[in-house]
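>> received
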Amino acid sequence: MPLARILGDDPCVAIPRASNFPAPALSAGQGLLEVEKVNGRSAATRVMARSPLRILTPRNCPGNAAWVFTSTFGGGLVSGDHADLQARIGVGARCVLATQSSTKVFRSKTAEITRQTLSVSIAAAGVCAILPDPVTCYAGASFEQRMRIDLDASASLVLVDWLTSGRKARGERWALARYASRIEAAVGSKLAFRDAILLDRDPGPIDGLHRMGRYDCFGLMLMLGPAVAATAEGIVSWDAGQPIHRGQDVIFSISPLAGGAVIRVAGTETEAVGQWIRQRLGFLGALLGADPWSRKW
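>> returned
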């Protein structure tokens, strides 16, 4: 598929303007996104992608942020696919980066691994909310993802990353072959957060009692930066007063981080975890000018 450049005359889609950089020659699966504050509002000023990656910037965007959704041709990632998105959030700009639906990873029929990478830089006073739907690995899928977020000292980030057990109704509960994920966030030149997960069958069944057990959805939330620091502190304080009961269907842990917080959650049902995440991130409506989930479900 030829290089796609998505631009339009609607300010919610994009505002064409001169760039200091020439249009790069993208490889299959690569994407480029630039969001800047133009005439008092945030807009996607450059959006480029090559198949199988798609980048959508819907019209009639609510709030004061640029809304960007990623998707793939064919409804998912197949063996050997590599979706690689590089994004830059400009000075004072705000962006919601989400997915059109859950990221489906199909069975790997060869030794090739399906990969997904995301690199985001957030300039001074910028805000980026990365809010994808969960990753769902089908039986036999082999998937790796890498995320790297670089923030200016005055920039802010809200990141959600979550994983389901697969197509449980089809008997594919934790039937994936391999899942590997690494997330890094740096403030200035200093690494502020790193998280790594590896799930494979070498130590035994992934759904074993001392591995995933009875839980079918695991999520991570990361909050960093001055725009979310007070809210993160409030969530940490809220957690201190929560009771713990044996056999809870949703469990969580919340840890303070310099300028933010790290939240981990697990549940027996994906819907319950999703609802819990949305409750904790209810403050995003005020930060972005609109509830990021109000028109999605």
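>> The chain has three helices and 18 strands.
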